[in-house]
Design brief:
Elements (H helix, E strand, L loop, with lengths): L1 E2 L4 E4 L10 E4 L8 H7 L5 E5 L9 H4 L4 E4 L6 H5 L7 E3 L9 H6 L4 E2 L6 H16 L2 H9 L19 E5 L3 H12 L3 E5 L5 H6 L3 E2 L2 H7 L2 E4 L13 H6 L4 E5 L8 H10 L2 E6 L19 E3 L8 H19 L14
Parallel strand pairs: 3-4, 3-5, 5-6, 6-7, 8-9, 8-11, 9-10, 11-12, 12-13, 13-14
Antiparallel strand pairs: 1-2, 2-4
Helix pairs in contact: 1-12, 5-7
């Protein structure tokens, strides 16, 4: 049933059933919620959802009496969490949980769960697609032909083979490891920075573990695969870019706030960074008048690296099942804020 001008969606079970538990979905980018409804409605739960992302000030009216909360991009901050009187779990549609105040949820004893094992191959593939597109100048050469011309669209020195490059991978989690596995097939040298992973694990993957400063100063390409945390936000900034090699290529399919957007824009304009390929940005959407939208040495996508039909289905099924598990009072997997369910 559509309510509130088509924005609020409600599904209720039959009146003869026992009282339903309420699952609130703060926002979603899918065409519908038929997958979630197919899992949760037969269990007798009420599903209430806002499709569009709202402000934090709006969210308490949706989540205050919810028994479980599922969120995609909405800002589930400390005030929103403080308004929750019944929540047994907060589930994030995705791997990253940077839009949820984990400490506030922990203080309230609310476990926060993510979906850590979806879209691994999709994001790794997108990383390689970006890297190959930049080094083989796929977009400029396509546009040259489309405009009725023929020949090489860029100077010869911009056409590069991966075997001749040193690639720096920041973050050696599930996605970072899959990126490394793909890079090894292209015969490039790979340096890895991840302070929470044993050096031996990195070495066993055929890579060299390094400090961030070493990675910045010794690589031709940097690709980011770390979460957004207090330690990593703004990791790529004016100071770190100053350490980087002239002509650096930057790839970011992780989180937009890992990169200082102004610093990157300046470095691209000066040529210190020769190219960038970005699936994420800060802010999103990228403002219509932002200069990075017009740069010929930048490839952009609108936060779509995780997309495929199987990946999105797994994401949605897992999120719905996590909510159902919490409402049954069963132990939860994938708890990221240290709260025992």
């Amino acid at each position: 049933m559509l309510c509130a001008g088509g924005i609020l969606l409600c599904w209720r079970r039959s009146p003869e059933s026992t009282p339903a538990m309420k699952i609130a979905i703060t926002d979603y980018s899918f065409p519908s919620l038929e997958i979630e409804e197919g899992i949760l409605r037969p269990l007798g739960h009420e599903l209430v959802a806002w499709k569009e992302k709202r402000t934090a000030a709006d969210l308490p009216q949706l989540v205050a009496d919810a028994d479980a909360v599922i969120t995609q991009f909405a800002p589930v901050n400390a005030d929103v969490i403080a308004s929750m009187t019944r929540a047994k779990v907060i589930v994030r549609y995705g791997i990253g949980v940077d839009n949820v105040d984990l400490a506030a949820a922990k203080t309230r004893g609310i476990p926060v769960c993510n979906v850590p094992d979806y879209c691994i191959d999709e994001v790794a593939d997108q990383t390689l697609a970006f890297l190959l597109a930049v080094t083989r100048q796929v977009v400029p050469n396509t546009l040259l032909i489309r405009d009725g011309n023929w020949g090489l669209a860029t100077p010869l020195d911009q056409m590069r083979a991966l075997r001749d490059l040193t690639v720096g991978v920041v973050g050696f989690g599930r996605i970072g490891r899959e990126v490394v596995a793909r890079l090894r097939a292209f015969k490039c040298k790979v340096l890895v920075h991840d302070p929470v992973v044993n050096a031996s694990d990195i070495e066993q993957a055929g890579c060299k573990p390094v400090t961030l400063r070493e990675l910045l100063s010794q690589t031709d390409v940097i690709t980011l695969h770390c979460p957004s945390t207090g330690e990593t936000r703004g990791l790529i900034n004016r100071q770190s870019l100053a350490i980087a090699r002239q002509g650096l290529i930057l790839i970011n399919v992780a989180r937009g706030d890992l990169v200082d957007s102004d610093a990157l824009t300046e470095a691209l304009q000066s040529g210190h960074v020769s190219a960038a390929a970005l699936d994420v940005f800060a802010p999103e959407p990228i403002p219509a008048d932002h200069p990075i939208r017009k740069m010929n040495n930048v490839i952009l996508a609108s936060h779509i690296a995780s997309c495929s039909v199987p990946a999105v289905r797994k994401l949605r099924e897992t999120a719905a099942n996590l909510a159902a598990t919490a409402l049954r009072g069963e132990p939860l997997p994938n708890v990221v804020n240290g709260v025992k369910s």
